[in-house]
């Protein structure tokens, strides 16, 4: 599980306040959860254009594209997590920060806004309503 408060506090300070030469005014967001089912806070950070560090398993691994819309790391490995945070801060301070932020924001807008989710759910409901064999429903969001 969970990390001790002293460890998490040091990580949060590094992400929030940065380290000399690595941080940009916007900073970065790290989700240090070892188990994360979905990660709404990650989506919120991505929608604000922050570089994110996310668990390489669970829900975030289905929507964070490593190196494109964020960074996926083994959050059970302190070294990997620290390296991911340092990379995110480098991204935030680098010349490609705006492009990285745009990619993350675009993915959230395309997939997870109320409008996008409503479209996905309406397709699921149409598939269910149109299914001939109601015992073999295949729900598809495509």
UniProtKB/TrEMBL annotation:
<keyword id="KW-0328">Glycosyltransferase</keyword>
<keyword id="KW-0808">Transferase</keyword>
<dbReference type="InterPro" id="IPR001296">
    <property type="entry name" value="Glyco_trans_1"/>
</dbReference>
<dbReference type="Pfam" id="PF00534">
    <property type="entry name" value="Glycos_transf_1"/>
</dbReference>
<comment type="similarity">
    <text>Belongs to the glycosyltransferase group 1 family. Glycosyltransferase 4 subfamily.</text>
</comment>
<feature type="domain" description="Glycosyl transferase family 1">
    <location>
        <begin position="28"/>
        <end position="90"/>
    </location>
</feature>
<protein>
    <submittedName>
        <fullName>Glycosyltransferase</fullName>
    </submittedName>
</protein>
<dbReference type="GO" id="GO:0016757">
    <property type="term" value="F:glycosyltransferase activity"/>
</dbReference>
